[in-house]
Amino acid sequence: DRDFKEFVLHEDKFNCANDNNFYLKEIYSKQYNKATALKEILDYTGLNLEDSYFFGDGLNDIEMMGAIGHAIAMDNAVEEVKSHADYICKSVSDDGVADFIFNSGLF
């Protein structure tokens, strides 16, 4: 089994996130990612970054966690993801997003 990065011909243009919990391997642009998409959406809608929340559990969510007003990691996330979060909520299988929204007191 070769490392998935071998398939990336232009590693200077792409990131590769390998989430061993789910055996996912994702390739995404260094120029455009979830964080750049968020900024475009906020600019378009006129919403404030400080009022935005993001829930993530994968390595490809780390850029977003650094760009969002409030970063929330799922309990099932790897430690690297959790280290970038402002809050940790319950896991996906325990309905962590719904539980956080209803019980955090932030909304």
SSE topology sketch:
Elements: E1 14-19, E2 24-29, H1 34-45, E3 53-56, H2 62-67, E4 70-74, H3 79-82, E5 87-89, H4 96-103
Parallel strand pairs: 3-4, 4-5
Antiparallel strand pairs: 1-2
Polypeptide structure, described:
- The structure is a single chain.
- With 107 residues, this protein is an alpha/beta fold.
- The chain has helices spanning 34-45, 62-67, 79-82, 96-103; strands at 14-19, 24-29, 53-56, 70-74, 87-89.
- A hairpin with a 4-residue loop joins strand 1 (14-19) and strand 2.
- The longest helix is centred in the middle third of the chain and has 12 residues, at 34-45.
- The mean pLDDT is 83.
- Helix share bin: 25-40%
Number of strands: 5
Low-confidence stretches: none
Average pLDDT works out at: 83
Helix and strand content put the structural class at alpha/beta
Task: Tell me the strand order in the biggest sheet.
Answer: 3-4-5
Rg computed from alpha carbons, rounded to a whole number of angstroms? 15 Å
Strand content: 15-25%
Secondary structure tally, helices: 4
In brief:
This protein is α/β, with parallel strands linked by helices and about 110 residues long. Helices cover about 30% and strands about 20% of the residues.
Overview features:
single chain; 107 residues; alpha/beta; 3-stranded parallel β-sheet; two-stranded antiparallel ribbon; 4 helices; 28% helix; 22% strand
